[in-house]
Amino acid sequence: MTKREEWLKKKFHGSVSLANILGEVTKPIFKDMGFVQGNIMANWHDIVGGEIAEQTLPRDVKFSRDKKTDGTLHLEVYDASSLRIQHMEPIIIEKIAVYFGYKAISKIKIFQKPAG
């Protein structure tokens, strides 16, 4: 148990909320995915904003061999939003670049999925 978890356990008398330990739980999973993919998955709502995040779900990021820039984001889009999201591709790519501070993604591949 980490010092933070011990402190939280003492402060809340044994109960700890999931939000307080989520980072510790997801860190090994996102490490296996890679820095960019893990951060996009974990922070999608913060990166693109609520309106886009409600209609989409990032699934994967593919890079050319030995590169960590100019990747292709595989994005699930729900129902009829795919055309709208396709037109917003440059905006989404720019939002991701602003978030990371470099051009991590240069292309988006859209997969249309039914809502629900």
Give a written overview of the molecule:
- This protein is of the alpha+beta class and 116 residues long.
- It has a domain at 34-113: DnaA, N-terminal domain (GMP Synthetase, Chain A, domain 3), CATH 3.30.300.
- It has helices at residues 3-11, 18-33, 35-48, 50-55, 82-87, 89-100; strands at residues 56-62, 71-78, 105-113.
- The chain has a three-stranded mixed sheet with strand order 1-2-3.
- A hairpin with an 8-residue loop joins strand 1 (56-62) and strand 2 (71-78).
- Helix 2 (18-33) crosses helix 3 and helix 3 (35-48) packs across helix 6 (89-100).
- The longest helix is centred in the N-terminal third of the chain and has 16 residues, at 18-33.
- The model has no long low-confidence stretch (mean pLDDT 80).
Spatial sequence of strands, sheet with the most strands:
1-2-3
The helix content is 40-55%
Structural class: alpha+beta
* Average of per-residue pLDDT values: 80
Strand fraction: 15-25%
Radius of gyration: 17 Å
Q: Look at the structure and name the CATH superfamily of the domain at 34-113.
A: DnaA, N-terminal domain
Biggest sheet features: 3 strands, mixed
As an assembly, this protein is single chain
Number of strands: 3
Low-confidence stretches: none
CATH architecture of the domain at 34-113: 2-Layer Sandwich
**CATH class category of the domain at 34-113:** Alpha Beta
Q: Calculate the terminal CA-CA distance, rounded to whole Å.
A: 38 Å
SSE string = HHHHEEHHE
Q: Give the overall shape, derived from the CA principal axes.
A: globular
Number of contiguous helices:
6
CATH third-level topology of the domain at 34-113: GMP Synthetase, Chain A, domain 3
